[in-house]
TrEMBL record:
Organism of this sequence: Catharus fuscescens
Lineage: Eukaryota, Metazoa, Chordata, Craniata, Vertebrata
Any one of the GO BP annotations: mitotic cytokinesis
Ranges where the Phorbol-ester/DAG-type domain occurs: 1-42
Listed CDD domains: C1_MgcRacGAP, RhoGAP_MgcRacGAP
Name of protein: RGAP1 protein
Amino acid sequence: VIRPEPCHVCGSRIRFGKTAIKCCQCQLLLHTKCREQCPSLCTPRPHHHSWPREGVLADFAPSTPPLVPTLVVQCVTEVEARGLTETGLYRVPGAEQLVREWKQKLLRAGGALPALSSVTDIHVVCGVLKDFLRGLKEPLVTFNLHPAFLRAADIPSDAASDTALRHVVSKLPPANRDTLAFLMLHLLRVSHSPDCKMDVFNLSRVFGPTLVGHGSANPTPLAIMEDTPRQCKVVARLLSLPPDFWRGFVETEQENLVPM
């Protein structure tokens, strides 16, 4: 396994580097240990239908700006309401089963979202947000602009790197750009909380693979090794941009970001 995916029998994520079994007809993927519980019959279907609830970010965005998916807004709102005193926010994992259940609840609910206030562990809410972003068909920075983000972050001059990154951010699809801006402002607030003990360096390590990812859906092992440190550098550089830059994308129609 190169990109972690869920086992279609037990639902747990099959992690990087593990061996898995995939049906060549229906593309069903499962742990080797789950083979005995696998249905014996299948219906051939295209590979891209294996995660029917997943799509690109624009598939989940509202029709009015700022184009930030409601799931993202609700998770961030809940985290900021009661998580900014929690040590290791976004680094400490939530219970995998609960993360999976709540993510599916929120995706199925669409606009009528169940209240996340009933989730006792705030790390589960953080896990839902990260899992949603990881599960998109392409990372937030998109496959097309992935090389440009890496190049911009590699520029030695801070001023030149910032200028290049601003330019690349402006070229993102509107939903990706607005959501990235919304998340950057949120992560800056997390980094400024002394109780969280999650500075820009720690947050960039957590969110580098999630937000930047790789330049294709099936990266080679070599690309994964080379990309990992550069992913973190991109997020760290993005978090170094002034908050006013990010506010310019999301403060229009700010009332649309208030979860119902």
